[in-house]
Structure formats: structure tokens, C-alpha cells
Amino acid sequence: MNSESGKHRVRAKLETRAQELTERLELQSVRSCYICRTCTSSCPVTFIDPRFNPLAILRMVLYGKIEEVLNSDFLWLCTSCYSCQERCPQEIPIADIMTKLKNKAFKLGNAPVGVRAQMDIIKKAGRTYPLDDFDNKKRAKAGLPELPTSCDVVKTLFESETESLK
Amino acid sequence: MKYALFLGCTIPARARNYELSARRVAETLGIELIDVERFVCCGFPIKSSKQFSAELLSAYNLALASEAGLELCTLCSSCTSALTEVAHELGYKDESQLAAVNSHLGPLGIQYSGRVTVRHFARILIEDIGLERIRKSITKDLSGLRVAVHYGCHYLKPSDIYGGFDQPEEPTTLEELVSLTGAEVIDYPGKKKCCGGPVLPVDERVALSLAKEKLDAVHEAGADLLCLVCPFCSVMYDGNQKGIENEFGVNYGLPVLYLTQLLGLAMGLDRKALGLNMNVVKTKDLMKKIPE
Amino acid sequence: MTDGRVNRSVLVVGNGPYCFKVAGELASVDSVSLAVLREARLDEMEQKPNLVELLMPVELLGFSGQPGEFRAVFRQTNGSHAERTYGFVVVALESEWISTLNKWSVVEDSRITSLSKLEKYVNEYLGNIGPGDKVVFISGFKQDSYPVSQEKIVNFAAAVREKTGAATYVLMEQFKVAQEGLERAFRLARELGVVFVKFSQTIPEVRVGPKECTVQYMDEAMGQAVNISPQLLIFEDEACPPPEGRYISDLLGINLGNQGFLQGDFLFNLPIYTNRTGIFVVGSGKGPISEREAEREAEAVAEEVAKLVCSFDKEVVGPFPTLNENECIHCLTCYRSCPHKAISLYPGQRSPQISPVACRGCGICVESCPRRAIDFEHGESGISYYDIDKEIDHIVYEDSRDVPRIAVFACVNSAYDAYLLAKSRGDRLQARCSVLKVPCGGRVEAAAVIKALGSGVDGVAILTCHENSCKSVHGASRCRKRIAAVKEMMTKCGVKEEAILFGTVAPGSAPQFVELINRFSLRLQGGDGSSIIPGNAGSGGEAR
Known about the structure:
The complex is a heterotrimer of chains A (166), B (292) and C (544). Chain A has 166 residues and is mainly alpha-helical. Chain A is 54% helix and 0% strand. Chain A has 2 domains: 27-107, Alpha-helical ferredoxin (Fumarate Reductase Iron-sulfur Protein, Chain B, domain 2), CATH 1.10.1060; 113-165, no CATH class. Chain A contains 10 helices and no strands. Chain A is elongated and about 70 Å long. Chain B is of the alpha/beta class and 292 residues long. Chain B has 13 helices and 8 strands. In chain B, helix 2 crosses helix 12 (259-266) and helix 9 (204-220) packs across helix 11. Chain C contains 14 helices and 26 strands. Chain C has helices at 17-27, 115-120, 122-126, 147-164, 182-191, 245-252, 291-313, 333-337, 364-368, 388-393, 415-425, 446-453, 475-492, 510-524; strands at 10-14, 32-36, 53-55, 58-66, 69-76, 81-86, 88-92, 96-98, 112-114, 134-139, 167-172, 195-198, 205-208, 213-219, 224-228, 232-235, 238-240, 279-281, 320-323, 343-344, 353-354, 374-377, 405-411, 432-438, 459-464, 500-504. Chain C is globular and about 85 Å long. Chains A and C meet through helix 1 and helix 4 of A and helix 5 and strand 12 of C.
């Protein structure tokens, strides 16, 4: 192979970056897609807002347009309802792929404000809806046990920066 | 029968009616629910942003249950899926993963054995108590009610982690449980569709549109109430119903009840004891259809 | 056979390397002569078959006769004529692939080529391709695509992707998977990362500039326009029928199929059979097929010839036609109408001769003979379904006051089976049917239809195979035209033509049979508002 020319190198670099991302995020399974469109027709969000289309995202990954997906406003419209994943005849873990893409986008700072805020709250309080003494009073009144109002362990857990279990 | 009760985040703060009714129904059926004070968020809300941290939160909770030597009983479907997924990964795959997780739990002075079962309250009702035993506790006939059930997504999916519980494409468990009360379960289009909750912090309009679609269908089908098993779904259908009515210029007034509230009513439990006064959409008219 | 001697030699007619392969397969069973219509390079042959005679290049001038005694006249390059006799003929013409580059208005160069060129010069074309490069294959859009060329594209795409690391795209108008292993090839290529693009509404655009060529298209699944500047662009070729195909089919009396290819897939036959017994067609001349398949056909034809040779030794069973020479007026209608070319004229013979080996018993000659000089001798005793006249006389009509009585002429290849199946399934027919088994719709003469109508039924239905799958080639269409003529004649005579129905039924399709009969019955009862049964206006009146 004659890949010495400058143009060649630039092209190779671009291609490699997309390939690297595909491999690092373990997205190779998108290659099995044979465009049956079951995912899209199962998606409750596509029905409401065609900006989000699972098949289109799979195709973009296949074309190496991962960064375009990561920067998009539609990626986060996925509700993780697993309809697509359950029904994919090629057993592509579509919902899991969306999660991986969202994780990567979050890392790049591309998550919506609401998502980032949720993260900060959980980091700080260990819960999505932190409890205070007032809440506990209401709970007690209803005959429910009191719950802790602060949480330190999550901070320790968040310091881990390793890869996901899957 | 003894289980560690996993409440998660939404229930103690925003769905005390669910918690109350679940505890009352559990008492009635002789289920002992143990509170574990140190439980933290299951991790589900941050799975999309930081999966590994989410998984560690799940593992931490699983470790607490394993320390207490108890199975986990969940009320929220999202908690169920997050915890089950991690229990599944750590229980069935190679040991090295478990070791890796435990190395992160180590500094907190806790270890996970890799063997904790996680099940939703409704699944425990079906699998451990059984329909027959529940039927014996039913004292009121709710046959005047037309009930639409909403399964939600994570009660059943991803199905490969749920060990064959119910069928995600043709689920029956909620219908079976509701039918015990004598109420008529009615079908409606889009029964398996998502409530839209997870995109609420992303795009409120999309989330509310998803919820509206279902409210439309249930309303159209002539249901007296929508019955569900997840506090997040309830936030969408009960908590946000007024908002949807205003935003889209529609009118439902559709009571949304937790499965445990409906079962509790049929067991003759007091309306307040089941937290029905805390439901956002008023349930007073509904009560008129139930025998004293 | 005129003289009782059976010639067992085989003539293979071809136009390229494949006919040598076929001759090689046949040589193991019979003595083989090979007539190659073009000069082929013998040094390319792996192994020269053991031939009795090789005529190359040669022109086939004349052809006549029947299985066991086909006569062929050749003209060789030096102008000399040769006449030979053969027992059987195998046509092994090959189709050709031609480039579609001009259809895309592009010119071949080092970046743009056709699939067959790529195949030939694969190292030259792929030598400069590496990671980061883009390679695009285009299949279809300007011509029909075939599984065999798609398989080549898919395998090349997979190899390009795997060996060079280039981003590889295959743009396809249609996916074909109806070939052994093709779906698997698609899967393997996909898993290697080849991007396949399906099209349903749009077609790709190709632009060639001095520095780069671009392919622009809409990825319909992604909903986005895509712009690729490939370093290598390959177009699928177009399959062209063998240029000699039409001429050979005329001369040998075998059918042409789609677009000038020799007869294509036919419902009732093996692919290598033709409308003529003793003449076979193998290979891509029938339409592009894979090499594997072509090889299999070469093996199969050797077996079929061997089987046919054996059949000559046995006595002919089954009904076969005889010609009454005293009645024959030599009009040659039978000769012209036989779809299997089983009727020959021999110098010195008074009447046409019917070959019992080549005859398939469709009865079209019986129908067409103006002198009624041809009849069938009965093969099996007791069954004489060729003698329609007698059958009609024997129709026993059940008394029927409630539903119409219908005489049905049912082709044995389709409608008769459908009738039997409907009966065994217990399907309800809204008519009393007397079903006559006929060997082909083409056998049913106008007189039989009129006679049946005059025998006391309310209606007559003639049900044949679909016209494009008639076992006797044009039997069903002849029948349709004839029935139309009968109806026209009846209308002119003031008789309502609605009492006659022509219909086609797929082989053994009981529901179609039932629907046709029941609709016909409704029509006969005046379900469409006009009763044509005298005295039966739905009130249970008695039919004649």
C-alpha cells in the first residue's frame, strides 16, 4: 500500500479517529444492521419528534460520524425504554449504544443543563431529590420512618474513573 | 417473608403515597419490609452520563443488602432495572469484575458477595405470595371500575436481565394482579409505550407529549383510572397531568393510582392509610364507585 | 424413429470456454461433438475434452429432426458444408457482461472501472488503496442486477475492506439474496464494516472532475445527504444475452425467455429442459448464473442425456397421437402448432411424422387439425380424457334445482388438481360441477365447448394454467383466444356469452378454483342482475 502522500495521511487520520472511537466505545455491533427499520418504528420518541431516530444514529456511527452524534441535540432525547433493543432482529444493543454515546457526550461537556444538574445533585446529596428535616417531619406525620439527610459515600464512589462493567 | 425495602430517591420525597400503600399492603400479606438507612441512589439517573459511577452506586446498595443478608424489594421500576442489571453483571460474569467493583467499595469498608436478588414489589407478589393468597385478603369488590394498566419500560426491560419474568411484548402480570380486585382491566393502544420521564430534564415538550399520547389513549378508552408501578411514571401522568392539560388544552381528570393503592382499596384499607389523599389528581369521585 | 436406429451422440453448441467444460462432462457418458460458434482460445482450457469432432469456428445453417436423429448442417470457415446426425443437443451459450460506464456518462480510468475489469486487474486497481481511502461500488440503477454479480461485488467489497482498510461503500438499487450463500456473504461484509446503502426513491449521482470524482446520494435510512470522493469507483456490469441466442433459438425451435436470454425459469421443468425433448440449455445463456451453478448444470445435463438414452430402449408408455394418413391433407397445421416441435416432415414421407419420444401429449395438434386426422391412442386403459366428445356424452348431471350446473374443462396441470384439492378439503362449490380432465387448455376445441353447452348445463367453464406458465408454451393463450372467438360468435347469434367462462388457475390452487366457480355461478344465477338461466330467476325454477 502506498500511503505516503500527505493527503493520504490526513484521510487516514480522520478515518482512524472514527474507528478508534467505534472500538473504544464498542460500537462495532452497528455493522450488523440490515436497515429493517424495526428500531425506528418501535421508538416512542421518533413518533413524537423525528429529530430522534435510532436507525439514523446507527447509520451515522457506521459512517464514522460519531462526533456529529456526540455534538447533536437529539442524542439525549432517547428515553432508554429499550423498545428498539428488545426488538432488533440482529440483536444490536441499541439502547446500550445510546447510553455509551451519551456517556461520551457527557464527558465532552455536551450534556443538556438538566442532565448535568441532576448529576451535581446526586454527587452532593446521594439522591435525586435530597431530603431535609422538613421532609422527615412530613414523613413522620404520615407514619413513615425518618431517612438520612446527607450522604458522604457517593463522593468516594464518584472518584473512580475506570471503565464500565460491560 | 423478609426483604430489604429499596425506596430510591423519588419515593421518599415525591411518592409517599406509594410508600405508604406498599407498606400497608405488605403488612396485610405478611411481608416484612426492612429499612436499610444507608441506601443511596440506585444510579439510574446518572447511567446516561456516567455509567460506571452509576454501576458503583448500584453495587454499593447491593452490598448493603448482602451485608444484611436480605433480598432486595424495589418499588421503582428504574431502580429495579439499574440494580438488577448490576446484580446480573456481577453475578453471572467472571469474578474479575466483582473483584474490580469490590476494590472500589473497599475504602467504604464494605464488600459485595455477588449474590443478591433484586425484585420489584409486584414481582414478589406474583412469585412469592401468589395470586391465590392475595385473593384471600381481598374483601371489597371493585367490579365497578374500569382500569387501564401502564407497565412502564424498566419493569420488564431489558428482558435479558429479568430471568424470564413476564413477557415484554405481551405482558400479563399487572392485569392478573388488578383482576384480583374484581375491576375490569381495559386495553388501549400504546400500552407498552414509555412515559417519557427520562427526557424530562432534556426536553420537557417531548416528555410531556409522550405522556399526553398515553393519557389521550387511556382517556379515549374510557378508563376510570390508570394503574402503574413506578413513581417516575406517576410523576409524568399524575404530577404533570395538570401541566399537560394546560399546555395542550386538553382535559382528562384521570386518577392515577399505584398498584398497591388499588390492591389496598380492595383489601379494605383506609383511603388515607393508602395515601390516596396525596395523589395529585383527586380520587374522591373515584371513591364513589367503590362499595363502602 | 423412421428407421428404428437411435443415434446416441451429443452435439454441444457453444460460444466460449464453458461449452468445453460441458462437453467434458458429457464425454464420460456419450460420444460428443462440439460446435463452437466463435473462435475460443484452446490454451485457456484446463483440460481438453475427449471429442469425436470439434468444429470451430463454425456456423450452424440448418437443423431438423427428432430426438435420436437430429440433423445439423454446418458451414465451416473454408466455406465447406458438413451434415451430421446427433441423438441430442446441448446448447451451452454464454451471456456477456458489458460495462455500464457510458450509462453513467463516465470514462474508465485508473479510479473508475467496471466490475469485470476489476476482476481482471484486481492487483493493479487495489495496489494504491490504503486506510483512509474510500472505495465505492454501485450496483443496479441503470440496468438489472443479478445475484451472481452482486455476490462478486459483496465479496470484493469485503476483501477491499479487510485487506486495505479503506472505507468501503456499496450502493445498491436492490438487494438480491436468492442465491446460495449470498446472504451470508452480505453478513460477513457488513461485519467487516462495509457500509451498504439501500435506495428506494432516489438514485446516486456521480460526478467526475479532473482531480477527484464524487458520489452524491441520499442515505434514506440516515435521512442525510452523503458526499463521498472515492479513490476507486466500481460499477456493476450489465448482463447481455448471448448474441447467437436468438438465431439459435429460431433454428432449433426452442423458446427465448426474458430480454432475449434463452428460456428462463419455468415452473414445470428443470432449468435445463427446453420445450423440446432431447434439446437442453445450460449455463448463463439463460440469464446470469454463478459458476457453481453453471458447473452443476453441466453435470446435470450429462445425467439427463444418459437417462434419455435409456428411455429409447423402453417402450413408449402413455397416450401418444396417431395420424390417419387417409384423412391428412398435408396442411401442416399440426407441424406449425406443436409447441414441442415433435412433428417432423421427412422427404419421401407422405404425411408429417409425430415423434412419440418428443410428444408430451398436450393434444394441441388434435385440436388444430382441420380434418380431425389426429387422435390419441390410449395409454392407460379406461381413461380417455383426450376424447372429449365421448366424455361429454357421458356427463351425468345430478338433478339440481338450487344451484346452476356447470361443465368444467380443467387442465390437468393446474385446474384439475385444484378441483381435486377443493373436493378433498370439503370446499363448498355453489354449483353442480361436472369436471372434465383435459391435458391442456389448448386441447379444448370450440366444438367441444358448444357441444357441452348444448348438453343441458347452465354454463361451461374452461380453466387453464396461467398463460406464462403453460406447460405447452402457448396452450393457455390459444385457448383464451379461441374462447373469445366462441363468445363473439355466440353474441352474433344472439346467445348470451355469459354462459361461458375462461379462467386461469395456479397449479393446485383450490381457493382460486372455488372463487372462479362461485363467481361464475353467481353470474349464472343473475347475481349481477341478469339471470341467463331460463326460468330460474332465483326462485328455484327448473333448469333445462
